[in-house]
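Question thread 4412

I'm putting together a teaching handout and wanted feedback from people who do this every day. The idea is simple: show students a protein as raw sequence, then show them the structure tokens that encode its fold, then repeat with a second protein so they can compare. Below is the first pair exactly as I plan to print it.
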Amino acid sequence: MNISEYVVIKCPICHTEKEIEIPSKLIDKASHLTSVLISKSIVCDHTFHAFVDKNFAVRGYQKTDFELPSNI
């Protein structure tokens, strides 16, 4: 069994692509789709969600409208 899989993530704002590693155990726990928060600097300067199915296929993205500062 694989411990993780590599998935190509594409920013829905600037369209930058990057291959990231996603732990298999997170995907295995989900019933169908897993929402993965992609924080700034992982792919680009934007924060967004990627929706990944049980076959590690990206099914869609959601832009983040507002991000609270971490010092609140």
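The second pair follows. I'd like the answer to focus on this one:
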Amino acid sequence: MGLDSPAFQAYRGSEPPRFASHAEVECAKVLDYYGVPWEYEPRTFVLEQDEDGRVTEAFTPDFYLPEQDLYVEITAMKQSLVTRKNRKLRKLRARYPDVRIKLFYRRDLERLAQHFNLDLAS
């Protein structure tokens, strides 16, 4: 999809972010508004490899907050459809126990949108 992004002050990446969803753009705006340094999809974690060492499954969290050493994944999917994403997070936590990650669900995003008067449509 690759949504263009507005100019951000707290963004710490080297290339302008190309967001996959409108919800990610709005989350970035909230982080930026509060001056929380963030990066967009800076790291991909290998979850599974085949016998030849080729990656068969990987996971790239949406945001990294360096000051909190925290990865953040945004999902605007309906709650009933997030099973696969939850499974990937469980694998990530098992394989990388020192990595801190938080998943924000649709209901979390809706609460943020209501609180900050954001437009999460699209």
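Top answer:
Good format. For the second protein you could add a caption like this: Helices lie at 22-33, 83-95, 106-116. The two ends are 12 Å apart (CA to CA).
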